[in-house]
Amino acid sequence: MPHDLDSASYVSFTTYRKDGSAVSLPVWVVPFEGGYAFTTDPGSAKVRRIGNDPRATLRVCDRAGKVADGAVEHSGTAVLLDGEAALRVKDLVRRKYRIGSVLVGAMSAVARLRGRNPGNGAVKFTLG
User: CA 69 from chain center: how many Å?
Assistant: First the structure.
């Protein structure tokens, strides 16, 4: 597995709209079952894009999503995880991003209080 992704705090996750245009977002990433994974709301736009086209890329970035010149682009496919697999990813993310995951958990709790259920979803990216 690529060392740059293994040690990254953030990666730019790129998916593709139906018209082929790319959409990139910074996400936290953890190694998972021979690939990489991150948590997400199962109803998010990136999940819909993955459903239409599983092609995706990862590049190391900063927390704002800025990719450094010369950053290696890793191409592969993405799939939505749910159930037990998504909970395992959530636990791995919680361990790697301790303080940040507490803040995200608090924001999710507020969303649930407002009637929105972000759910437990995760995305797995496999190189190749």
Answer: 22
Half-sphere exposure of 124 (CA within 13 A, CB side): 16
- Which tokens belong to 53? 């086209």
Q: Are 96 and 27 in contact (CB under 8 A)?
A: no
- Residue 59 burial by Cβ neighbours in a 10 Å radius (0-12, 13-18, 19+): buried
SS3 of 3-18: the string is: HHHHCCCEEEEEEECC
Please list the helix, strand and coil fractions of the chain in percent, rounded to the nearest 5, in that order: 35, 35, 30
> Which pTM does this prediction carry?
0.83
Per-residue pLDDT reduced to its tens digit, 55-106: 999 999 998 999 999 999 999 999 999 899 999 998 999 889 866 554 555 4
Burial of 13 (0-12, 13-18, 19+ CB in 10 A): buried
CA distance 25 to 63: 10
